[in-house]
Amino acid sequence: MELLLGEEWTVEPAGGTTGEAYFAWTGEQKLFLKRNSSPFLAVLSAEGIVPKLLWTKRLENGDVITAQRWVHGRELSASDMERPDVARLLSKIHSSSELLDMFKRIGNEPLTPSTMIDNLNNRMLATGASHSLFHEAIEYLVSSYQEVKAPSMVVCHCDINHNNWMINSNHELYLIDWDGATVADPAFDLGLLLYEYIPTDQWESWLHHYGFPLTANLKNRMHWYVVANTLDYALYYVHKGNEKQTLEWTDYLYQLLEQSVSIEK
């Protein structure tokens, strides 16, 4: 990285699971660099969803390095997720025809309920997981997936953890880390966010800022995706042999399946 920028630059790893992100600075200048970042970073930048993209360079080995403007700000806290501007930015993302067109052009296959069920069944077979609760979750997903057809498919971030939201000193909000994004039902993102961060009695108010009413159909779809995502995490930690995390996600899955009975009524 130093060779790419010049000797006057200092470059350090930015952490993260991929090890592909870096901080770089010289004097008062500071950049965020990433190797092989999302191919639609330019669209995200143009729409103000991520910090401004400054340049892109392709290396001789085929890797692509992107440089973004450094954001002087902070990550959102869990309590910040109740903010109206979080709802508005997520709505902007889900409403973006430019993002959706970009995904279609790169051949992104929509993540449908049937695809998710197939993926979960394959993961269960691969891990050899035999917990009866996992089979109960699959039964719920199979029995109700016909009822969770999305009225439209949009670009979903799929990892709306509060650590991926940043706000700068000018109160401009960004959603970063788009490596796992895909085309899916907007209820995927909405369910993960609302279940994790927003008290149930505030869902309607939060969705008002998002621009969509809290209907019975949306409730069912959100719950379905949260159950699927929770089972996915539980199986992931079974595969990793992490008993503590497996137990935590299994307990949460049990609670969700108990809720399924009341939601379906």
TrEMBL record:
<feature type="domain" description="Aminoglycoside phosphotransferase">
    <location>
        <begin position="12"/>
        <end position="211"/>
    </location>
</feature>
<dbReference type="GO" id="GO:0016740">
    <property type="term" value="F:transferase activity"/>
</dbReference>
<protein>
    <submittedName>
        <fullName>Phosphotransferase</fullName>
    </submittedName>
</protein>
<dbReference type="InterPro" id="IPR011009">
    <property type="entry name" value="Kinase-like_dom_sf"/>
</dbReference>
<dbReference type="InterPro" id="IPR002575">
    <property type="entry name" value="Aminoglycoside_PTrfase"/>
</dbReference>
<keyword id="KW-0808">Transferase</keyword>
<dbReference type="InterPro" id="IPR052077">
    <property type="entry name" value="CcrZ_PhaseVar_Mediator"/>
</dbReference>
<dbReference type="Pfam" id="PF01636">
    <property type="entry name" value="APH"/>
</dbReference>
